[in-house]
Amino acid sequence: MSLSLLSSILIDGIAYAMILFMITVGLSMTMGLMRVVNLAHGAFAMLGGFFAATIPQRLGVPAWLGFLLAIALVGLVALLFERILLRRFYGRDDLDQMLVTIGLMFLATAAVNLMFGSTVTSVALPELFNGTVDLGFRSIPRHRLIVVGCGLVVVCVLWLTVDRSSFGIRVRAAVDNAPIARAIGIDTTKIYAATFVMGAALAALGGIAGAELLPMESTYASKYLVILLAVVAVGGNGNLFGSFFAALLLGIVETSMKYMVPQLASAAFFLTMIIVLLVRPQGLFGRHA
Amino acid sequence: MNTVTAPRAVPAPSRARPWMQLRGELVLLLVGLLAFVLFPHDLGLLTNMATMSIFALSLSLVLGQAGIATLGQAALYGSGAYVAGWTALYLTADPIAGLLLGGLGGGVIAVLSGAVMLRSTKLTLVMLTIAVAQLLLELANWARWLTGGDDGLAGFNIAPLFGIWEFSFLSYTGYFYALGALVLVYFLLRNVVESPFGLTAKAIRQDPGRVQALGGRVYLHLLAVYTVGGIVAGLAGALTAQTSKVANLFMLDFSTSAGVVVMIVLGGTRRLSGAVLGTVAYMTIHHIASTLNPYHWLFIIGSMLIVVLIVLPEGLIGLFDRAVAYARQPRRSGVAR
């Protein structure tokens, strides 16, 4: 294997992994915290991408402000969804939770199709993302570097929030034992809502940043659903670094197969997942339930 | 899945009226014949409804009775379809042989994949079932010389049923073949569900730990249930391939697995009749809505799913049960007086 092939695999693989991480970390958190499998999570990334594609033009604001607005809007949608619908399903059967969120994914797909059409919509990125950076031995698209940077910032900020802030302490208490956390006066309802909104906003960020690799179309949510779930299952739910390393593992496996044996890239992805889950059913970093 | 349902009084089988035991099968047969008379121009749709009902029945056993959370039932269905296609292409054109081999194919895939998957539970299990189906899909896509890849496996001929009735475009044979298979599968599965084997599966759904403590072998039992489900799903796939004369990648697709779960949830997961009712309801709505616009269809099915889960957790069959209970109430109070 030549050095340039290896470096291409690593750059694209890591960028892809960071996108997967940003989108899935919220899903993993809600699963660890509320024990809800939210199959509509990909829809938040999709909404983020579509809002980011339209808001800057419609409102005539700079791209970065449009992106922030898009992310905030997705957070609002997520808040409404959690408060109105999802909270009724805490404590219900896993299957009921999956189905109600699948129903929501269908609605989101239909709504996006109605508003934006069924063709692939490209997200216009600011100037900053274009061009390449010369590293001496090879040049890297600037987009990839920014995506990787974004992913690393997200993992650091999240780690600090969960590990160091008082909010993080309460989140961890609710993950470990929700009834006891409530009994000592932690408002788990607020924590659930805040975490859910945060996860959705991160998914929107991932959707926008990754629109070049995972293009925005109305079937986005269902098309990438299985991949997102795979990352969460491999990482172990509710674990920040689990999601991070699972995204890296699966992202690099799939990207390297795409460079070498493209027909079997997805097969290799799922085979990796099956092997990990057979060896560690609770995921790479998951704890026994 | 830990809710313990209140014991429902199961009426003892009455010797005086043996047809009462077969009333599900009789109703199914009569409705099938009635549909044939009323909608002679939609035979293709009706045939699909019958084959999908068999597929939904397989999931109703696996998920509704035994509580095996799966979003990969298409793996078993698609395998049955391809095996039936290969049988017709390379072995024999006899429909019954293809059907049985298709069932066998589904069963073999179920026993192999179930053996590695069924020790896990919850999300891990769901993900493994999805992964197995996706893996088969990718392999089928890759092995073009065997499966035809994107174009599907077509160009096989099915010999006349029992050597008498020809399968041809818009023929009655396909419909009655599928309907007959549906009634037979329903009868067999109902007996499985009511047998000690089926009751044990139900007990495992409600509390696997207790079944284990009582000396039940949970893993082996679930594997057996999953295999039976695989055989039935394989039969359904084989029937679909034979009546539509094609086996394609869509039959292994995730959306096929998700669709059949939606069907049984609409109808009601706890009863076999719910699976048939849900399939018929789903496909009728699909038929009407998708002629308007495929995305309106998603609106309708999405909102139906949410509404059913919130107001009618036991599915459409629950509406029917409530109506029956309501109708019986005055009579019962009359007896009390």
From TrEMBL, chain A:
GO terms for cellular component: plasma membrane. InterPro entries: ABC_transp_permease, BCAA_transport_permease. It comes from the Bacteria. Its main location: membrane. CDD domains: TM_PBP1_LivH_like. It is found in: Cell membrane. Pfam families: BPD_transp_2 (PF02653). GO terms for biological process: amino acid transport. Keywords: Amino-acid transport, Cell membrane, Membrane, Transmembrane, Transmembrane helix, Transport. Belongs to the binding-protein-dependent transport system permease family. LivHM subfamily. This is ABC transporter permease. It comes from Variovorax paradoxus.
